[in-house]
Every structure is written in C-alpha cells, then in structure tokens.
Amino acid sequence: MTKKHIAIIDDEISIQKTLSVALEAQGYTTTIYNSSSEALGKIKVDPPDLIILDIMMPGVDGITFCSIFRKMEYNIPIIFISSIVDEITKIEALERGGDDYLAKPFSIKELLVRVAVCLRRVDLYQTTSKRFKSNLSGFFIDDGAYQIFFNGSLINMSVTEFRIFKTLFESPNIVFSRDELMAQAYPEDTYISDRNVDTHITRIRKKIINIYSDFKGIESVYGLGYRYKK
C-alpha cells in the first residue's frame, strides 16, 4: 500500500520537525515547505494527500495560499494550525477552503486523529462509493469523484462541502438539522462543532452563485436547520 503523503507548510523549524517525526512514525511520508510561496510551485508537481498549513508566515499567508490553492481545483484536505485563536480568523480560514482548524499549542495525538479522519473522508469517496450521477435542475453529481457540476461547469468543493450539498440535494424539501448535516459530513469525527455547518453552507452558496448567479436552492429554516428547495 502506498504511504500517504503529507505536506507541512510552516516557517517554524521546531514545528516542522515535531510534525514530521510524529507523522512519519505513523507511516506517512512528509515534505516540509518553509513558506506558502515555496509550496505553491512545488505542490503542483507533487500533490500531497493532505496539507498541514500555518497562517502567519513571511510572504503569502496561509489563508491566502488556501484561497489560491482552491482555485486550482484541488480537493486535497487542508488542516490549518495557528496560534491565532479568534473566531473571525477561524471562520475566514474555513470559508477560504480549509477543512479543519487546530489552535497552537495543540496535542500531537489530536492532530494525528484529525489527519486520519480527513484522509478517511477522501478514501471513502475514492474507494468505496458507487458512482452516482444526477442532472436534476442542471446539477450533475459524480459521487465516485466527489465532484459537482452545474450545466457542465465544475463547482470546486471540498469533500465536506460535497457531502453537505449532496445530502440536501438528494432529499429536496426535507429539513436537516445542523447535527444531521454534520453527521453526514463528518461520520467519523467527534471533534467537530455543529456551528461549522453555517460556515460550510455559506461557502457552498458562494461557490454555486459564482457559476449560477440566480441560485437560491439552499434555504435556512429558522430554529431547525437547512433544506434544498426543489
């Protein structure tokens, strides 16, 4: 079995070494980048299976890197690690395409669990999903590749966003609570708060509207959750 490859993007040498040693002890291979600028060019040539990304770095900061990287249509999971703990920064990091956020200092054990969970999400769709396609309302869902298209245009979503949209889309007019959506998006993760659903929904809407400006399909139902209006 090919070892999973983790890219570590952080300018702190001590963090680089700690993460690299811990990850390789778990059977992963790692590549260390000292800056986002360095990583942007090299990751195109050798894409990893997951990225661990700091925010505060010289040159291009981590959130800007994430935004640029997502526009390249990579669905590689990104876990932010940062000493910044304010809610605004966390929300922005997730809105720009992050899959998880861990505040420094953090437990290496918890990081390893989060890495494993993110990778399992991807593997679930790549190896165990049956291919499912639908073109209702102009949308086309490729379940095997976890990709969503509208009228032939790819809507670049993370695995988490894909799962949330697919859950709503396949059960039109049914209201899902935040807990129910999180259970679909993170079936193996006990660390995620249901508050993240609102952030993911915002990102999904923005991405669809960029291609389909009149999209109003996902509705908020006050006090209950969300539904896809057919």
Automatic annotation (TrEMBL):
InterPro entries: CheY-like_superfamily, OmpR/PhoB-type_DNA-bd, Sig_transdc_resp-reg_C-effctor, Sig_transdc_resp-reg_receiver, WalR-like, WH-like_DNA-bd_sf. GO terms for biological process: regulation of DNA-templated transcription. It comes from the Bacteria. GO terms for molecular function: phosphorelay response regulator activity; transcription cis-regulatory region binding. Pfam families: Response_reg (PF00072), Trans_reg_C (PF00486). GO terms for cellular component: cytosol; protein-DNA complex. Residues 5-119 form the Response regulatory domain. SUPFAM superfamilies: C-terminal effector domain of the bipartite response regulators, CheY-like. CDD domains: REC_OmpR, trans_reg_C. Residues 127-230 bind DNA. The modification 4-aspartylphosphate is found at residue 54. Residues 127-230 form the OmpR/PhoB-type domain. Coiled coil: none annotated. Keywords: DNA-binding, Phosphoprotein, Transcription, Transcription regulation, Two-component regulatory system. Signal peptide: none annotated. This is Response regulator transcription factor.
